[in-house]
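Lab notebook, bench 4. Still working through the backlog of constructs that have no structural model yet. Next entry is a single chain of 318 residues. Request: give me the structure tokens for it.
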Amino acid sequence: MQCFIIMPFKKEFDQIYNIYVEICQSKKIEAKRIDSYGKADIIQQIFENLKETDIIIVDISTYNPNVFYELGYYHGYHKFTNNIILTLKETIQDHKIPFDIHGLETLSYNDIEKFKEKINLKLEYLINPQNEPYSCVKWFYKCISTDNYNDAWKALSNDFKRRRFNKSIKLFKSGYKSHSILKLNIDEYISGDKIVKYYVSYISESQVPDIKQFPDIRNKTIKDLPKICDEIKIIQQEITKKGLDYKALDDMTLREVTSKNCNDIFIFYLKRKCQSKLLKKKISSFYDGTKLVSLHNGYIVTVCKKKKQWYISSIMPI
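Model written out:
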């Protein structure tokens, strides 16, 4: 987990910065700030860190415009405020806090010992991404992108695991293998006490089989159905010749067949039908090779609260 620290570039803040880092490290959180004056790309570095970080600590003690600019960028990009920790050197005076952030909790370090206690409690809560629905969704996709499948698996509800993956993490991993995620965007559109729905979009880069035989039916019409069926039968025959289960095609929904990444989904179903390692190896030999493709993905992700924890209960393609 990462924490990005936003604060003025002044030596007088070095001591409190060291305290921020010390507290974060005690929670096994990587904390850092960007404070190299001479680098031309410093703004770009700051933006990249704001996009990737899980938590931000924002020191608004001097009401520095650069600090507020970076806070605004983070809020606008993530559209989420629960993992923002505002800090202030002086005793908190409500009339001094800008109106737009007045609703956010602000911790004063006028009394350093009380401050340490409060920020420790806040970080303790934020460490577990399943304490918040937005964090749960972001954590899931971050784990997928870094091949951390075991943690991503924990973000799924038991019902979803049974429905989609038959309790098999191996099957789950096969569906997301070599699946790097770029430009992740998470927008909440239905909110409730126990159920929250998000529109999740991102660009994925994956190594997918080069399936030249698979028909592209996205622009086909009803009158083309007989020809499409004939093309699918040819694929089924080729699958059978390789000793694989052609019924994998029968499990694909029409939405999946018409999606841009239908080839990737097809491989997923093939692997699910295969019981032996030998047959799974034949899947890759069925095609000439693989290719790197970039795909635009859109999903409705439903998150449900169970026993004070949030879990992903549904991921529906759009």
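Notes after review: The CA atoms of residues 188 and 198 lie 4 Å apart. The chain has a mean pLDDT of 82. Flag for follow-up if needed.
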